[in-house]
Write a structure and sequence with these properties.
119 residues; mainly alpha; two-stranded antiparallel ribbon; 5 helices; flat
């Protein structure tokens, strides 16, 4: 069984309690020593510089050219059944997505959606 800990510093205030809990569970991890060019780095500034040097070396330089993209609109096909199955798999208890529509609304209106899109 887990150990029970009573905190007498909260004085019955809920905000004090949460502050106490957050001080106990805060993330205190640090980046350990890293090796760069055979040297062991322990100073935070040296480690940051080593990471910066590495990540700037693996990135790409923008050449200003826009890559050619294929138009996929004609090659992507889906049926009413595909749409119905996707809507049925939505979890109704979730909040709205980036479109602002909650999943429950889509499930309630799916037959109306079929009629307007596929008929």
């Amino acid at each position: 069984m887990g150990k029970v800990c009573y905190c007498s510093t909260t004085n019955g205030h809920l905000g004090d309690f949460y502050q106490f809990v957050n001080t106990r569970i805060s993330n205190r991890s640090t980046v350990g020593a890293i090796v760069d060019d055979g040297l062991i780095l322990t100073d935070n500034q040296d480690k940051a510089n080593a990471f910066n040097k590495y990540f700037s070396s693996v990135g790409l330089t923008d050449n200003g050219q826009i890559p050619h993209r294929r138009d996929l609109r004609d090659s992507v096909r889906f049926t009413e059944a595909d749409v119905a199955n996707s809507i049925d798999r939505l979890k109704c208890n979730l909040s709205a997505g980036p479109d602002g529509l909650p999943p429950m609304l889509l499930q309630k209106l799916k037959y109306y959606y079929y009629y307007t899109k596929f008929v």
